[in-house]
Write a structure and sequence with these properties.
The complex is a heterodimer. Chain A is built from 19 helices and 14 strands. The radius of gyration of chain A is 24 Å and the shape is globular. Chain A is an alpha/beta fold. By secondary structure, chain B is α/β, with parallel strands linked by helices. Chain B has 4 domains: 24-140, Rossmann fold, CATH 3.40.50; 159-275, Nitrogenase molybdenum iron protein domain (Rossmann fold, 3-Layer(aba) Sandwich), CATH 3.40.50; 286-416, Nitrogenase molybdenum iron protein domain (Rossmann fold, 3-Layer(aba) Sandwich), CATH 3.40.50.1980; 445-498, Orthogonal Bundle (Helicase, Ruva Protein, domain 3), CATH 1.10.8. In chain B, α15 (360-368) links the parallel β12 (355-358) and β13. Chain B starts with 14 loop residues before the first strand and ends in a 5-residue tail after the last helix. Classes of the chains: A alpha/beta, B alpha/beta. At the A-B interface, α1, α2, β2, α3 and α4 of A face β1, α1, α2, α3 and α4 of B. Bound molecules: iron/sulfur cluster (SF4). Iron/sulfur cluster sits between chains A (26, 28, 47, 51, 54-55, 108-109, 137-138) and B (45, 47-48, 51, 111).
């Protein structure tokens, strides 16, 4: 799918040997963020002290004000094979917190290397389920993908494969006959899978209600019940492309999956139609709501178009959708990079973006690649990781931490579009301040290499 | 490391809550990377690199990331089959190509130690050999770790080149801080001021404001100041010159300035400086001591969980000098008989002193307990807190004044919060210390037992706040009684009305 042959020379300017610094939080943090935020879940972390210190720090900052239990694991315990015993003791300590419903035992790098298996842990402590969440961060590569690991562990605990087998062990076909009223009600509801801004589920629910459906929950969620419900709803909307194992688990439970997210005019329209199909809603009603959202989006863009060149270089795994919105709103986005792997679920967005002027989409990116791209395309705004945003600001370019952007404005449907465009327009308009600061601290500028021209017409 | 003293009798497993002290690997990176002509390659999975190099220092030292640190990026294949030598080799070559002027040092991590990746041999045989530092990350904590790294740097990059010169008179080195030392810039600033006042000249601040190539010059100074009791003394001893620890409080600081003057032969200048400081930097302390604020100290309780230097310094200053009452103090690294985090958590759930100096852990425990009348004052990592401004020291004369000013202002804050208020919006019952409006006096009857019960509740509130709190709690109980049409307040009603939201 090479729609941009004339841009090939710009690509891959960092040799693999110089791509040294992959960009992600410690992957394990993704799992911790999901698990510690659930009410009634206590975590026990099985790992060495350096790891424990760092992960506790980021958890207390970004996830939950929850005390975290762990065993002290040094060479002695690890080499003497006391890991299972240590894990059990930490789980017991974790379960002492009143109201504990589930203890998540996180097995991290050194525990995984030493070997810790589910059978070594009790199934329950004081009535609380114990779930082993295996997070060998060295084998996971990015924190978004570790969110998938944690959610999958919970879904596996709570969902059963839907297809009953007959006496010969052959799967029987799925039927959509609903045994009771509650199930019938759930069959017209959707669960969104993927972290979102808190206002987004509200606007999505409102749109779904107009179509005769509703939003049941959003995962990751604060409530264990939402995880239990996931196998029973009418459809799962996998908003972000990296929930591959969760999606596989739910698909095996017989739940229809809609991928993509309601971002931008085309995206919102397509997503609402997809939900309508999956839930078998009245097509005319769905078309009316979807078209209304699309037209509202277009009106917002027409009133407040973006112009400028933007790099989208986060490590959250949902960069492609965000970039689509910016492009639809009129920005050029020549370069996009993310921490996750290329997959079936990234293909549609990548194709769309490349058809709309994006030159490079880099998966499993490194800091060196992102910085080289800065000097190749000279963007007007960079949404990046903290080191990359710092590098942008050192060049006098407005730079924002992509993760922060996601946490300050809604993104979905026309309401999210308006908020996001406003934020980006504002960021672009602040360029002179970034230049003033740069000059104040760094002095006269070295001569600038002219930016590569980008053809957005083909 | 904070480990439970309450061990499971069946096994030797020690438990940790909210670990407050990190490992030797972090110590190595945070110490070596202060030197801009060093480039550390950590033999690490990506996560161990990110936490120590970006995610944590971003929010503590407030630097976007440590840019002289590169990971080998250990993946599953390296852990299970290949070993990490290939990954380290690639990183060494790439970093040297990019930064030919930097000294590459390879550092082990817990995971590389777990699979016994020792690179000493082959790194030593490179055309340009590179040293390998075994960080003992599975055994050593960050304080012992920093101490050992500093000594190692001296032994490898200092001692061999240092001539047997006699020290330059009146020069002083400061040993410490490194990255990850709470409040270090302000304390360092104050320390420099004290040294200059005593007649000294600061030569090296190692490693924080030095280069690796400065290391041999460590031996040139006449006196070394070891900034923290937690680490750095090992290096000071190896240097063989007299050394002093950085002071906290008026008495320690005065002794420090005098002793430094004596060691440098500048006694008269040191004395003159102390006299000048009494009328200048320290004057506010004398004024507050003589003013009404001074009356609060003897009735104020405080607790400390912090690095040893701060823990001991705060007890000496706030306790011994000002007469405040320490309810518990526990230093890090923890010593036998001190409270670990499990014990601290239990204590704070039961009882909350007026001031708690600590890390985010104590802040969480106070929040869990619903503590409303306790002032939390950051005094330690972990926890996201920026302390880069130069005007917030705990050490020295300026530190004494800053601490007292900070506490007095928190007192004012308490008073403000307990004063009656005509709110624009109706106050929500059982909210934070706002001003629940008391029903007209006399309409609600109290049994004697209920009154006693209320007094018992007041006992758990810091002394200063009690008068206003008594009015506040009474209003809360009576408001509850009114809403529930209860004519007489019994102990049971008091309990129900004052029930705190569960932690
Ligand atoms: S040991 Fe593994 S889980 Fe822990 S910080 Fe390092 S990479 Fe992350």
């Amino acid at each position: 799918m090479d729609t941009q042959p004339n841009h090939a020379p710009h690509q891959v300017s960092v040799s693999p040997d110089q791509a040294l610094t992959p960009q992600t939080m410690c992957p394990a943090f993704g799992s911790l963020r999901v698990l510690t935020r659930i009410d009634g879940v206590q975590t026990a972390m099985v790992t060495d002290t350096g790891c424990l210190y760092g992960l506790t720090f980021v958890t207390h900052f970004y996830a939950a004000r929850k005390s975290i239990a762990a065993p002290a694991l040094g060479t002695q315990e690890l080499m003497a094979g006391n890991v299972a015993e240590a894990a059990r003791a930490a789980c017991e300590e974790a379960a002492r917190v009143p109201g504990t419903k589930l203890v998540a035992a996180l097995s991290l790098c050194v525990a995984e290397t030493a070997g810790l298996t589910e059978e070594m842990l009790p199934a329950q402590i004081n009535g609380a389920d114990v779930v082993l969440v295996r997070v060998p961060a060295y084998a996971i590569h990015s924190h978004p993908e570790a969110k998938d690991v944690a959610i999958t562990a919970l879904l596996k605990k709570f969902t059963t494969p839907a297809r009953p087998t007959d006496a010969q062990g052959v799967e029987q076909p799925l039927t959509y006959d609903q045994p009771d009223a509650q199930a019938a009600d759930l069959s017209r509801k959707v669960i969104m899978l993927g972290e979102v801004f808190p206002a987004d589920p509200i606007t999505v629910d409102a749109a779904l209600k107009k179509m005769g459906a509703a939003l049941a929950a959003n995962l990751p969620s604060r409530s264990l019940d939402d995880y239990k419900m996931a196998g029973k709803v009418g459809a799962i909307a996998a908003l972000h492309p990296f929930y591959t194992q969760s999606v596989a688990t739910l698909r095996a439970a017989g739940v229809p999956i809609v991928s993509g997210a309601p971002i931008g005019a085309e995206g919102s329209y397509g997503w609402l139609k997809g939900i309508g199909n999956a839930l078998k809603l009245d097509p005319d009603q769905v078309e009316a709501v979807a078209a209304e959202e699309r037209d509202k989006c277009r009106a917002i863009i027409a009133a407040n178009p973006l112009s400028g060149r933007i790099h989208v270089c986060g490590y959250e795994g949902n960069e492609l959708g965000y970039a689509r919105l910016l492009v639809e709103a009129g920005a050029q986005v020549p370069y996009i990079s993310t921490s996750i792997e290329k997959s079936l679920y990234t293909a549609a967005d990548e194709a769309w973006l490349k058809a709309h002027g994006t030159v490079e989409v880099v998966y499993r990116k490194t800091l060196e690649q992102d910085i080289a791209a800065l000097d190749r395309y000279h963007p007007d705004l960079v949404l990046g990781t903290t080191p990359l945003s710092a590098a942008a600001k050192e060049r006098g370019i407005p730079g924002l931490y992509y993760t922060n952007m996601l946490s300050v404005r809604p993104l979905f449907l026309s309401a999210g579009l308006a908020g996001t465009i406003g934020l980006i327009r504002d960021a672009l308009s602040r360029a002179p301040r970034y230049e003033w600061m740069r000059e104040f601290f760094a002095g006269e500028r070295a001569p600038v290499i002219p930016a590569a021209a980008i053809n957005t017409m083909d | 490391m904070s480990q439970s003293q309450i061990q499971n009798p069946k096994s030797k497993i020690e438990l940790i809550r909210d670990l407050d002290t990190t490992s030797g690997y972090w110590a190595a990176v945070w110490t070596m990377c202060c030197l801009p002509d060093v480039h550390v390659i950590c033999d690490a999975p990506i996560g161990c690199f990110n936490l120590v190099g970006t995610a944590v220092p971003d929010y503590t030292d407030a630097i976007p990331h440590i840019d002289n640190l590169t990971p080998s990026v250990m993946r599953e294949q390296e852990v299970t089959m290949l070993g990490t030598a290939g990954a380290v080799r690639r990183a060494v070559a790439a970093v040297r190509a990019r930064h030919p002027d930097r000294q590459v040092i390879v550092v082990s991590t817990a995971e590389s130690e777990m699979i016994s990746s020792d690179h000493t041999d082959w790194l030593g045989k490179l055309d340009t050999p590179a040293p390998f530092y075994w960080s003992r990350s599975l055994e050593e904590d960050e304080w012992a770790g920093r101490d050992r790294v500093l000594l190692w740097l001296w032994q490898h990059f200092g001692a061999p080149q240092a001539g047997s010169v006699s020290p330059q008179s009146q020069t002083v080195n400061i040993i410490g801080p490194t990255y990850g030392c709470f409040n270090a810039p302000a304390d360092l600033h104050e320390l420099k001021r004290l040294i200059a006042g005593a007649g000294g000249r600061v030569q090296l601040v190692y490693p924080f404001q030095a280069r690796l190539t400065d290391t041999p010059r460590l031996s040139d100074a006449a006196v070394n100041i070891v900034m923290y009791r937690e680490f750095g003394e090992g290096l000071a001893q190896a240097l063989g010159r007299p050394y002093l620890f950085a002071p906290i409080g008026i008495r320690q600081t005065t002794d420090f300035v005098r002793e430094l003057g004596r060691l440098l032969g500048t006694e008269a200048q040191a004395e003159a400086f102390i006299e000048q400081e009494k009328r200048d930097t320290l004057q506010p302390l004398w004024d507050l001591w003589r003013g009404p604020q001074g009356d609060w100290f003897p009735t104020t309780e405080f607790a400390v969980v912090a690095g040893r230097t701060y823990a001991e310094g705060l007890v000496k200053f706030l306790g011994d000098e000002l007469g405040m009452r320490p309810v518990f103090v526990t230093g890090r690294p923890i010593q036998a008989g001190e409270m670990d985090n499990l014990a601290v958590r239990d204590f704070l759930h039961k009882r909350q002193p007026g001031f708690v100096f600590g890390s985010i852990n104590e802040k969480i425990y106070l929040a869990e307990a619903g503590a409303r009348a306790t002032h939390f004052i950051p005094a330690s990592f972990p926890g996201p807190i920026v302390r880069r401004a130069l005007g917030t020291p705990f050490m020295g004369y300026a530190g004494a004044v800053y601490l007292v000013q900070e506490m007095v202002n928190r007192f004012y804050e308490s008073v403000f919060n307990f004063l009656p208020l005509d709110a624009v919006k109706p106050t929500t019952p059982a909210g934070p210390p706002g001003a629940p409006v008391a029903p007209p006096a006399g309409r609600i009857a109290w049994t004697d037992a209920a009154r006693a019960q209320l007094d018992a509740h007041l006992e758990s509130i810091p002394w200063l706040s009690r008068i206003s709190a008594s009015r506040d709690l009474r209003a809360q109980v009576e408001g509850y009684a009114l809403r529930n049409q209860i004519a007489e307040v019994t102990p049971e009603v008091v309990e129900r009305a004052l029930q705190r939201p569960a932690g």
